[in-house]
Amino acid sequence: MKRKKIWILLVLLLMLTTGCTRTLTDSKNQAVKNEQTGQTLTKNILCKPTNKKTQEIYKKYKVNIDKLPECKDFKITSGKYEGLWTSFFVKPLAYILIKLGEIVKNYGISVIIISLLIRLVAYPITRKTAMQSEILKKAQPELNRIQKKYQGKQDQESMIKQNQEIMAVYQKYKINPMSGCLFAFIQLPIFIAFFEAIQRTPVIFEGELLKLQLGTTPSVGITSSTFYAYIILMIIIAASTFFSFKMNATGNVEDPTMKMMPTMMSVMIVVTAIFMPAGLGIYWVTSNLFTIVQNILVKRSREVNGKA
Fold this sequence. Notes:
Helices cover 66% and strands 1% of the residues. It has 2 domains: 2-124 and 177-305, no CATH class; 125-173, no CATH class. By secondary structure, it is mostly helical.
């Protein structure tokens, strides 16, 4: 019953994450871009742009930015009510990113710090996931033997016996097959909330970190004078994603499909990241690096102490 309630809660949460960002369009319904950066602008921004050129673009397309608060004065309660998702996820995250960015004097660093804080809060869950991954690797030889034992047998009796023997191995090693999915469901709304907060907050998407403009996508950034920064970002995203997935791989290591899984997942993430804001890429890299370090620590702890 408890597990069902958790799944229902997660489903309801995901239903709320329908996305509120609306792209600014011209009379031909084409996306409006900032000519200086090539960035596609968002119509329903939360606060007033600080860049004069950006302000002119919004006024040209009749977005009443004069009614918006200055980003430094933005509050969680600013603006009209836009639903639970915006009120409880996007606006609070944008507010925290703005205030922390003002303290550290850089909104890219603010993204990194908030990403780390979120991962630290979720650490009890992700640590269990990492522990389960290591335990499952230890149990994998026994699971492989069971699969080989019933290979080619499709009758109902064999299928039932196979499932019973697999569950016996899970019980022996105290493996929870669903534990690895929990953080994946939690991370999805966090990922979308970061996307919304970056895209809808001018002071963030106008910000820079190490030659990366936070609101510019790598697909656009590689055509700029600082193209190398976006190429480096994509390389780091690819490498960190690959090692993160590889360290968490728990399937049959002899299965060619499982061997290819980290590569396939990395390619999918990289292709997606090409069209996402650089600020979101920074969040993803930070989260990946946290996962890699965490898994190394869990693995070493098991090797030294026999348990994590």
